[in-house]
Amino acid sequence: MMNTAVGWHVELEFQEDDQHTRAAALVRLPDGSEVRAHGRASRHHTDSNQPRVGEEIAGARALNELAMQLLTKAHGEIDDASGRTSQPIHV
Fold first, then answer.
1. Over the stretch 69-81, which tens digit does the pLDDT of each residue have?
2. HSE of 45 in the Cβ direction (CA atoms, 13 Å)?
3. 47 DSSP 8-state letter
4. Pseudo-torsion of CA 73, 74, 78, 84, nearest 10°?
5. Which burial class, exposed, middle or buried, applies to 21 when counting CB atoms under 10 A from its CB (0-12, 13-18, 19+)?
6. How sure is the predictor about 1, in pLDDT bands with cuts at 50, 70 and 90?
7. Of 21, 34, 51, 72, which is the most exposed, with the fewest CB atoms less than 10 Å away?
């Protein structure tokens, strides 16, 4: 039987104008550390104005960056605990 010991909450905030969307992502980890990332999206001038699409693209890019930072953090912790250089973690 598996017990869940922790949960993570990810926050996403957006800033938008007529052609650009910026996303900021934040996750607070149980050890008290925070990981932050950003993503952007730009609307081509011939595309219709669909803010939700810009949020999805900018949000996905921010979450992708957040995931890569978490993988790098975990890889460093594996190396620190083992005292050696481990194999890279691939997505």
1. 999 898 889 899 9
2. 0
3. S
4. -40
5. buried
6. low
7. 34
Rg (CA), the chain: 17
pLDDT of 44 > 90? The answer is no
Q: For the chain, how many residues are written?
A: 91
Residue 30: both structure tokens together = 């149980």
Average pLDDT over residues 46-57: 90
> In this structure, are strands 34-42 and 10-16 parallel, antiparallel, or unpaired?
unpaired
In the beta sheet, which residues pair with residue 37?
A: 25
How many angstroms separate the CA atoms of 88 and 59, rounded? Answer: 26
Q: Are 42 and 19 in contact (CB under 8 A)?
A: yes
Helix locations, the chain, DSSP H = 51-82
